[in-house]
Amino acid sequence: MKILVAVKQVAALDEDFAIRDDGRDVDSDFFIRDLNEWDDFSLEEAVKIRESSAEPVEVVVVSVGPDEADESLRKCLAKGADRAIRVWDTCIEYSDSIAIARVLAAVAKREAPNMLFAGVQSSDQSFASTGIAAAALLGWPHAAVVSNLTCTPGANLAVFRRELEGGLLHEVEIQCPAVLTIQLGINTPRYASLRSIKQAAAKPIEVLSLSDLALGAADVGEAGSSSRVRRMYVPDKARAQLIEGDAAQQAARLAQIIHAFKGAAS
Asked: Which of 40, 121, 242, 260 is the least buried, fewest Cβ under 10 Å from its Cβ?
């Protein structure tokens, strides 16, 4: 059995930051990068399945990103992944979540896993669409927001629970191969030991290009994306004022403010 786990190196903003000259993103020098929190739970679930199985299970992590994504991939290797794959080409820059899903689907076709795990969402973009889009491109059954999973290697079925509105849980049987997006709290991710960190540093990371996946420039980047960032900016700070007086005075003052605002808008 093989489980492919999609992981992402996410970016968080430092306290001080600056927008890039083209106005479409934050200058990369101000990013703090780390493994996406949801993907940590996805990886742990895959490793747990391997550890509890009497049959061989291979856990392969895949990330779409430049060289610095190797840091997150090595963290995954230190936590128990067997292999790591990174896909990158300069054409991939500016890809939206659907274009990234196209790349992940191509990797899945190449690796032929029994299951593809992805985090419910990423902490930097929060689109929550990459895993489900990959399932649609593969034509595989899928489920989102999985909070419990029972999977027996060698079987073609898995049973999972997912969260619904109002605190309800939905228990479903799904046929493999399948795509599951994993929710926080499904398990407790482990810490990597110093020994495993040293061993992970020596493991190779397979790097694939678009041509290795039978994809072209038109499949990724702005050309292969359904959306694009037009502009990124810091919003104006909100203004507030306290209206003094009794109810009648407050209402009169509020009416004055509204009339003034309407006049300014016109």
From this structure: 242
**pTM given for the model:** 0.85
Write down the domain spans for the chain. 2-219
Question: Which pLDDT tens digit goes with each residue over 224-262?
Answer: 999 988 888 888 877 778 899 999 999 999 999 889 888
Is the N-terminal amide bond of 189 cis, ω within 30° of 0?
no
Reading the block at residue 83, the tokens are 């292999």
Of the CATH numbers 2.30.30.30, 1.10.10.60, 3.40.50.620, 3.40.1620.10, which one belongs to the domain with range 2-219? Answer: 3.40.50.620
Closest by CA position to 32, among listed 18, 11, 15:
11
Confidence of residue 23 (pLDDT cuts 50, 70, 90): confident
The residues pairing with 13 across neighbouring beta strands, listed in sequence order, are 31
